[in-house]
Write a structure and sequence with these properties.
4 strands; single chain; alpha+beta; globular; 41% helix
């Protein structure tokens, strides 16, 4: 069992290492990008990566507080589903209604890698190998699809 401080320290170490590893890789638009805190430029729309003691996740999260706006954003992603899947080269889970860990209603498109732990440094290469191609593929998708989401800015 890890203390709160150990949990925080290990997570910070992992994400700092991942950020340093990815720092030399430009975005699809050939711009510098913060891969760990990827900015889509659209409020309530984020690309996230997370790692726990049991799994890792890459996700597109729609958090608009207005249900109808969030549904419209989700519908826009559904329109681009084939393009997204072509970029990421795998099927992801689509949840029009998803409740996050705080109980907040969101929409989520995600993929999970089970049986890994951010607290085991020996799992870090596996985590990096999971995160890297997927966040890069999301960036490539976003490079062309982002204009269809300008209406939500």
């Amino acid at each position: 069992m890890y203390s709160k401080e150990e949990v925080k320290r290990l997570k910070e170490q992992f994400w700092t290492s991942f950020g340093q590893y990815m720092s030399a890789i430009p975005s699809a638009d050939m711009e510098k990008v913060n891969w760990v805190n990827y900015k889509t430029g659209v409020k309530h729309l984020s690309f996230k990566m997370d790692a726990t003691n049991k799994a890792a996740y890459v996700m597109i999260e729609l958090t608009h507080p207005d249900d109808s706006m969030r549904e419209l954003m989700y519908a826009q992603f559904v329109e681009y589903k084939n393009i997204l899947h072509a970029n990421i080269d795998e099927e992801w889970e689509w949840d029009e209604v998803y409740y996050d860990s705080a109980g907040k209603k969101t929409s989520r498109i995600s993929v999970e890698l089970a049986k890994v732990s951010v607290f085991k440094t020996e799992d870090w290469p596996t985590l990096i190998s999971f995160f890297k191609p997927r966040i890069i593929a999301l960036d490539e998708f976003w490079s062309t699809a982002k204009y269809a989401f300008d209406i939500f800015k």
